[in-house]
Amino acid sequence: MKAAPEAQKRLLDLAGLDTALDRLAHRRRTLPELAEIAELTTRLGRLATEIIGAETEAADLGRDQAKAESDVDAVRVRADRDRKRLDSGQVSSPRDLAGLQSEIASLQRRQDDLEEIVLEIMERREAADARVAKLAGERDEVTATRSAADDRRAAAFAEIDKDADETRRKRDAQTTDIPADLLALYTKLREQTGVGAALLQAGRCQGCRTTLPIAELNRIRSAAHDEVVRCEECRRILVRTAESGL
Q1: In Å, what is the CA distance from 93 to each residue of 78, 88, 107?
Q2: Where does the record locate the signal sequence feature (predicted)?
Q3: How far are the Cα atoms of 48, 63, 210 from residue 190, in angstroms, in the given order?
Q4: Structural domain boundaries, residue 115
Q5: Which class for 199: exposed (0-12), middle (13-18), buried (19 or more C-beta within 10 A)?
Q6: What does the pLDDT read at residue 90?
Q7: Sheet of 197-201, strand order
Q8: Listed residues 93, 128, 160: the one ending a domain
Q9: Are residues 189 and 87 in the same domain?
């Protein structure tokens, strides 16, 4: 392939712009905020599950407390009714009096037991409610942190995309003076190796950092100025300049 030396030298500027675009793309993919947002999103998912569990437990305890309090009220009503009967003097039989007093005492013990159950449930419910509040507070903090990370990511993306757009404009302008066949070869090599052209500097390929053998340097030295030469090691286009050491 033949191409004017100046056209070949433009490949170095093009390679520099492509490398800049690669760096910008890598920076966009590896922003610290992306990993932070992913971790915070995972935490929010776990918190949502924990909150549902804590709220379910609190609701269940609320129903248990309501039932226990209802049982206490029922026992209290029954005991109050028996006391009224006892105090009214309507029961005169010693046997009936003894039975009524025994029932009142039994109801009192039952009420005491139920009230202990109510207190226990209340304590457990307060703990469950406190856990719900704690988890909700943590969720709000994580949500705010993620929102801030989202804002930083958006700002970074905007800056990177602006730089990338400007670099692409420069690249498009750079390709206008490069022959189509040379540009096609460069593009093919870039797809294969990541960098399509490299400077030959002091007898060394700056693409693969390989020092060329004397025989290869002599071959390049004798090649026409407009001949497109390639590195035998990495196959990139070698661009010759005054720094090539030929």
Answers
A1: 20, 13, 21
A2: none
A3: 47, 69, 18
A4: 31-160
A5: buried
A6: 75
A7: 210-211, 204-205, 197-201, 237-240, 229-230
A8: 160
A9: no
By the 10 Å C-beta count (0-12 exposed, 13-18 middle, 19+ buried), 95 is classed as: exposed
| pLDDT surpasses 80 at 92 | no
* Residue-averaged pLDDT of the chain: 93
Give the CA count within 13 Å in the CB-facing half-sphere of 232: 10
Cβ neighbourhood burial of 149 (10 Å; 0-12, 13-18, 19+): buried
Nearest to 111 by CA among 69, 82, 61, 81: 69
pLDDT digits (tens, 9 = 90+) for 213-237: 999 999 999 999 999 999 998 999 9
Assess whether 149 and 91 both reside in one domain. yes
Largest CA distance in the chain: 136
Count of domains forming the chain: 2
| 35: in domain | yes
* Mean pLDDT confidence for 39-55: 96
Helix (H, G, I), strand (E, B) or coil at 244: helix
Q: Identify whether residues 188 and 85 lie together within a single domain.
A: no
Q: 21 with 117, same domain?
A: no
pTM: 0.73
Displacement of CA 165 from its chain's centroid (Å): 26
Rounded-to-integer distance, Cα 19 and Cα 25, Å: 10
Distance CA 245, CA 145 (A): 56
